[in-house]
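Page 47, continued from p. 46.
Same chain as before, 191 aa.
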Amino acid sequence: KKEPQYGIIAGILVGVYALVILLQFIVSASLSACFIIVGAGLAAAGLIYKKAGILSLVGFGALTLVDLIMFVRNLFSVFRLFNFGFTMILNWMLNMLSGVLVLAGTAATLFALATLFTNFMPAGRGIVAKLWFVPAACIVAAAVIVVPGIVLNGAHIGLYFILGRLAMLSLAGGSLFAVMWCAKSEPMPVF
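Result:
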């Protein structure tokens, strides 16, 4: 019986995510983008080459860590909002909600991969089988939820914004197929 190639599809989509972040990095260099590119590259390689499952764990672990650091950094930016109006505060709140959703999506994908590649959480496989769509839904919601704040602030929706939405959607697709792969595959513990 030929099994679906969800892992390869996930790896390709996460690789697209890495390339889009690389394009954003060229437009506006940042340290977090460097870590995202490396983490996504490792995750993509681990998903494509199934025997290298540890790479996907390390890659999504790095992505989750970067999302956590960015969320905490943005959380402390609230102190700069006291001199701004309602739309700026709304934009900050939408960005915070978006950050929580991306963090939840990458962490849930990491959890699903951990159930596939480790023996630490055998009970988690049932959760993954029932909620395989949640990580991707979180990331898609994060990509969409910031749009009203940007429009209300009158910000220009340019190439950087479009690349950001494309990156989020490719990460969501990669997460969707990665978790589907985890839900439909037999465990392959690497440690």
